[in-house]
Amino acid sequence: MGEGMTTAAFPALRMRRTRATAWSRALHAETVLTPSNLIWPLFVTEGKGVEEPIGSLPGVSRWSVDLVVERAREARDLGIPCLALFPNTPHELRTNDGKEALNPGNLMCRAIGVIKDAVPDIGILTDVALDPYTAHGHDGLIDDAGYVLNDATTAVLIEQALNQARAGADIIAPSDMMDGRVGAIRNALEADDRHNVQIMAYAAKYASAFYGPFRDAVGSGGMLKGDKKTYQMDPANSEEALREVALDLAEGADSVMVKPGLPYLDIIRRVRDRFAVPVFAYQVSGEYAMIEAAVAAGAGDRDALVLETLMAFRRAGCSGVLTYHAVHAARLLGG
Fold first, then answer.
1. Per annotation, catalytic residue among 99, 116, 205, 229
2. pLDDT digits (tens, 9 = 90+) for 319-335
């Protein structure tokens, strides 16, 4: 039918009516995205005044501790409430037992302390897993066959979490996927009088093909022997994700994470609907790299792609998103 059709022949409600102007679209928006929904992952390296661009993550760098502090100030000024720190541990300090993770003077702990001294009003989330510290690239201790040992690893993760909490971490984020580690870490934090240190559990972390650039960034990519399918989740499964989330919440997690992000929006929505708890997503390195590759190829506009994907996370039920585009997005959002 054409534009000249009679009013009587048309329904009373025109769905396009509220979309006709920008102010009306804003008024009727069901989902809101602000800088306060963003967590900025940062890679820390040794040295002073060091910025090391990461080839597989165009636009992302490793920063020495002094320059990470500058990034923390930048995030705070843009309204980004939290940083996620990941260390690029020197290779000579990586061992099969990952003992550098327990060193109070390690790269991660030094970065936490300096940031907290300089920018005390920004949150710091720290990764609890051994892959940045092991010579074999796995998240835990391995036996002679290369199998990651659950309970022996958990014992080390407890000490790693305490080490980071004592350095000033606000959120402990176990990303290792060992069974029972959330409860063990929670009990240890309580016993150490760290009652207000949060746990954001990587509850549904999948054995994904999207992690490659991240492993380059923390220096473990070329070291990994085998794969992580015996402890990270099978991409075919969603009911299993709900079981993982239920266990982590019962063990004392304050919030949960789904990782990767966009390929797992269905998991985010199921978790949010089932448990009504804070759910976070990690828009992982491979997702970031694909957006940047699309922009470089002239196949998309960075601003539009970044905001649309982040809005998708919020629409699916995320309280927040870890994203390497955090600063870019915050600037677009007027942070």
1. 205
2. 999 999 999 999 999 96
